Fold this protein.
Amino acid sequence: MKQLLLLHGAIGAKDQLRNFETTLKDSFDIHTINFSGHGGEPFTTAEFSIPHFANEVLHYLDKNNIESINLFGYSMGGYVAMYLAKHHPAKVESVITLATKFHWDETTAAKEMKMLDAEIIQQKVPAFAEQLKQRHAPNDWKELLQKTRELLFGLGQNNTLQLADYSSINSPCLLLLGDHDKMITLDETVNVYKQLPKGQLGILPATAHPIEQINVSLLASLIMNFLNSSELN
């Protein structure tokens, strides 16, 4: 049975992927992790960064004696998966991304950072603030947001993966995007897709960015079809 590691997005946690895990568990050996500071996982002394989170994946693989694995990443998790495919290709059998932002510059980062203002979230969407508090307890969710803002600022200053980097990723990759996603552009997704030697592209109908709004059955079907394709066997 093929092994598949599910990676959550920024300020998210592995519990958000539980429905996908349940749907796919009969077809694949499913693994999930929480990045440091997320889902109650302790903060580390290191700053949040894509390489840092990638190292946490590598540590998980080594700890569980996994030589290589298929990766599914939602949003930031997809970026981490791509980084691993670029810099640690022997560890990555294939990559599936969903709703991953690939293009970063100062303007983009500033826009995304503005959405992670803890005080504004607490004032305008208190239900979401409470959700974050519960999801990441006993950690301080406001500290998590600040560290994530710093990560985004860093990406805006120097995008960890440049467009040309994707041309050297030889693992089969499937890039998925919802047609109603207002955070990720089709152009940035297509631009990366065109660079990938073994890239595939899929658009999910009537699908926005939030992971909670994803059609679980549709996504699971796309994942199974991709991982069971002849290209991966």
The chain has nine helices and six strands.
